[in-house]
């Protein structure tokens, strides 16, 4: 029974260390100038500052796949959205449609033209044979084939970034929410909960 | 805080979080078993719900609902790295998938269908009076060069554009993803590199064809009569209303296509992804409109109408075609003395060379109206030898009168009907007698000037072809 895998970043735990970005780059030999994952900090330097680590979210109904003019995306049995670089023409439409800014493009061609798209593979490689040299060259590691989870989440020092079966990820997160709420109540509000205020308007400070 | 209170508070937490239905039941049971003051506490829940914060969830919820522009900072640098959620991506995607692609297909298919229907109803538009055999200069070599350069690039850009836009739905089912990927990569590269060249050529075209393309009342009348497409006659000058409309459409919409294309091709000067998304939609809509209109132009210029294609192919159109489709232009040429006048010297008789206009120094931006000339189309070297043969075999056979500059197949028929079959007959006729024959043959022939014909015929009768050729060149040079 194939799992439906997902990422989730717990903003109460993320400390913006950018280790996930570096780990991903190293593990997958991501081309120079490209980062498949990034950490975005909201309200940087203000009360209520939060950080989120973002990469491809492996959408169930992926917008990138919907707009791709050459239909190079496919979803694995595990719910991972992958693409075929042999078919990709580097048009950039997927990056226009993606809500999370996941697709990345090398600009090494003539006149800084876009090369073939590169994005997070959930450390699951590509359509080539799992573990092959070709696969590693184009897409990086295939940790899933080795029974491992994506390195970004595996090595996250605060375990803010969760990856794996969506049900398990949500279970872990649910437990965290309950536990945090209990702490608040048990301490009669003595524990500081500097909450994120969703009413903030517009852009945060740079 | 006693144990009972804690248990109650715990149940509130579960209630508020509403984790599962079962846990709610569990919470109720806990509240009931907790003892005496459960009713009061339930009232408290309804009146004053306890705020439990889950900031991480709130953050994602705010981000997901997209009420606000979520922009932060990131160590990673990139065009959209600071933006957490790309808000307009969904709109762009929906418009592209549910409107742009299907309506593009309908528009292009619809125009093609309309053309097929038009063809079935109207058939080929023939030159009613038949070909006169007399050619009128319509386009200079430079104009044709510009036209065909733009046309070639337009077709390449149009095809590659259609492949990239509609290929996923039209071609992948036929040739598969792998083959289509190669085709699309090629198409994208060609499209990107040819686009800027097209931009330059379109500017050249703007100036090359601008003369004669300004709208006037004639065009309004032309459109009111449906361009004569469905019967009736609609007067037109050098260019008719439809041609002018196509010219300005190509220029104005073409400019929109070029600018939006350059923004996408060269995302410099702080062009954002939002700008590119907008450009992409404008580029696609404008291009599809231009393509649909081009189908009409291409059809009218090629298969639809007898005599239209040769004008842009050779630079010359048939006189009768000009009379029927561009009567006002034809009239202008006549009034200017470019075609026919009573003074034969002003009539430029010209031995047809395959591409005389290429050597025309007035090329460039000059429009052909002033350099239009009457030509005899059939005096080719092959007909020359045939005529010689015919003459030597049997003296009863009529001569090839078309050898004489100014006489085409139609005029030859008229002369033959009047009993003039041999060069000698012309040689012995006076200019006035020939003119009378032409005049009585109908208004179409009135314009022709036979002044030099007897002299030419004399040489032809003697078989002095070189001298005839010299004379003809002399006549030509006089103009």
Task: Provide the fold topology.
The complex is a heterodimer of chains A (206) and B (479).
Chain A: E1 5-9, H1 19-28, E2 38-42, E3 50-54, H2 63-67, E4 73-75, E5 81-83, H3 93-97, H4 133-139, H5 151-154, E6 161-165, H6 166-186
Chain B: H1 3-17, H2 21-33, H3 38-47, H4 55-65, E1 73-74, H5 89-122, E2 134-137, H6 141-170, H7 172-208, H8 217-224, H9 241-265, H10 273-304, H11 309-314, E3 316-318, H12 319-325, H13 327-335, E4 349-351, E5 374-376, H14 381-393, H15 409-417, H16 423-427, H17 431-440, H18 453-462, H19 465-478
Parallel strand pairs in B: 4-5
Antiparallel strand pairs in B: 2-3, 2-5
Helix pairs in contact in B: 1-2, 5-10, 6-7, 6-10, 7-9, 9-10, 12-13, 18-19
What does this entry look like structurally?
The complex is a heterodimer of chains A (about 210) and B (about 475). With about 210 residues, chain A is α+β, with helices and mostly antiparallel strands. In chain A, strand 2 and strand 3 form a beta hairpin. In chain A, the strands form three sheets. A two-stranded antiparallel ribbon of chain A has the order 1-6. In chain A, strands 2-3 form a two-stranded antiparallel ribbon. Helix content of chain A is about 25%, strand content about 15%. Chain A has helices spanning about 20-30, 65, 95, 135-140, 150-155, 165-185, and strands spanning about 5-10, 40, 50-55, 75, 80-85, 160-165. Residues about 195-205 of chain A have low confidence and may be disordered. Chain B is mainly alpha-helical. Chain B has three domains: about 5-65, no CATH class; about 90-315, Fumarate Reductase Cytochrome B subunit (Up-down Bundle), CATH 1.20.950; about 400-479. Chain B has 19 helices and five strands. Chain B has a four-stranded mixed sheet with strand order 3-2-5-4. In chain B, helix 5 (about 90-120) runs parallel beside helix 10, helix 6 packs antiparallel against helix 7 and helix 9 packs antiparallel against helix 10. Chains A and B meet through strand 2, strand 3, helix 2, helix 3 and helix 6 of A and helix 1, helix 4, strand 1, helix 5 and helix 6 of B.
């Amino acid at each position: 029974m194939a799992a439906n895998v997902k990422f989730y970043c717990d903003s109460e735990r993320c400390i913006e260390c950018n280790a996930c970005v570096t780990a991903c780059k190293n593990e997958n030999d991501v081309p120079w100038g490209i980062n498949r994952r990034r950490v975005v900090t909201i309200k940087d330097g203000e009360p209520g500052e939060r950080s989120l680590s973002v990469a491809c979210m492996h959408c169930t109904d992926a917008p990138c796949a919907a707009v791709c003019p050459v239909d190079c995306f496919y979803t694995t049995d595990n719910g991972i959205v992958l693409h075929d670089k042999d078919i990709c023409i580097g048009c950039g439409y997927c990056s226009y449609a993606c809500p999370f800014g996941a697709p990345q493009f090398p600009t090494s061609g003539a006149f800084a033209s876009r090369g073939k798209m590169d994005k997070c593979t959930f450390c699951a490689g590509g359509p080539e044979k799992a573990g092959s040299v070709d696969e590693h060259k184009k897409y990086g590691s295939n940790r899933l084939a080795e029974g491992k989870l994506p390195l970004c989440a595996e090595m996250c020092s605060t375990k803010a970034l969760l990856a794996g079966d969506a049900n398990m990820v949500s279970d872990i997160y649910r437990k965290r929410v309950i536990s945090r709420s209990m702490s608040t109540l048990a301490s009669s509000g003595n524990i500081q909960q500097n909450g994120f205020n969703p009413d903030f308007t517009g852009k945060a400070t740079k | 805080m006693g144990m009972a209170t804690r248990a109650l508070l715990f149940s509130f937490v579960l209630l508020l979080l509403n984790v599962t239905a079962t846990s709610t039941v569990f919470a109720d049971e806990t509240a009931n078993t907790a003892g005496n003051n459960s009713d009061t506490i339930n009232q408290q829940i309804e009146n004053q719900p306890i705020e439990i914060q889950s900031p991480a969830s709130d953050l994602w919820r705010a981000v997901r609902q997209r009420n606000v522009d979520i922009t932060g900072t990131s160590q990673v640098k990139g065009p959209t790295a600071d933006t957490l959620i790309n808000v307009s991506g969904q709109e762009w995607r929906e418009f592209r998938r549910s409107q742009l692609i299907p309506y593009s297909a309908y528009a292009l298919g619809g125009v093609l269908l309309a053309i097929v229907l038009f063809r079935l109803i109207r058939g080929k538009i023939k030159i009613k009076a038949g070909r006169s055999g007399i050619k009128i200069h319509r386009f200079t070599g430079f104009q044709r060069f510009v036209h065909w350069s733009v046309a070639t690039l337009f077709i390449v850009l149009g095809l590659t554009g259609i492949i990239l836009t509609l290929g996923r739905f039209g071609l992948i089912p036929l040739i598969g993803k792998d083959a289509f990927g190669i085709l699309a990569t090629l198409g994208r590269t060609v499209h990107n590199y040819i686009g800027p060249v097209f931009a330059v050529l379109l500017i050249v075209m703007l100036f090359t064809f601008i003369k004669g393309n300004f709208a006037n009342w004639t065009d309004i009348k032309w459109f009111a009569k449906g361009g004569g497409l469905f019967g009736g006659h609609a007067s037109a000058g050098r260019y008719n209303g439809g041609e002018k409309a196509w010219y300005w459409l190509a220029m104005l919409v073409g400019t929109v296509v070029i600018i939006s294309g350059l923004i996408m091709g060269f995302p410099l000067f702080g062009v954002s992804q939002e700008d590119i998304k907008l450009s992409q939609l404008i580029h696609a809509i404008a291009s599809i409109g231009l393509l649909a209109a081009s189908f009409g132009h291409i059809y009218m210029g090629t298969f639809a109408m007898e005599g239209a294609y040769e004008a842009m192919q050779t630079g010359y159109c048939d006189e009768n075609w000009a009379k029927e489709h561009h009567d006002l232009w034809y009239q202008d040429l006549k009034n200017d003395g470019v075609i026919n006048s009573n003074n034969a010297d002003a009539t430029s008789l010209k031995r047809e060379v395959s591409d005389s206009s290429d050597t025309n120094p007035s090329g460039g931006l000059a429009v052909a109206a002033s350099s239009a000339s009457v030509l005899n189309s059939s005096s080719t070297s092959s007909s020359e030898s045939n005529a010689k043969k015919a003459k030597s075999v049997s003296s009863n056979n009529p001569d090839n009168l078309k050898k004489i500059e100014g006489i085409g197949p139609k005029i030859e028929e008229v002369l033959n009907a009047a009993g003039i079959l041999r060069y000698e007959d012309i040689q012995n006729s006076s200019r006035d007698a020939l003119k009378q024959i032409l005049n009585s043959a109908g208004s179409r022939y009135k314009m022709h000037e036979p002044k030099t014909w007897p002299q030419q015929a004399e040489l032809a009768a003697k078989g002095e072809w070189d001298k005839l050729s010299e004379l003809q060149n002399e006549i030509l040079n006089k103009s």
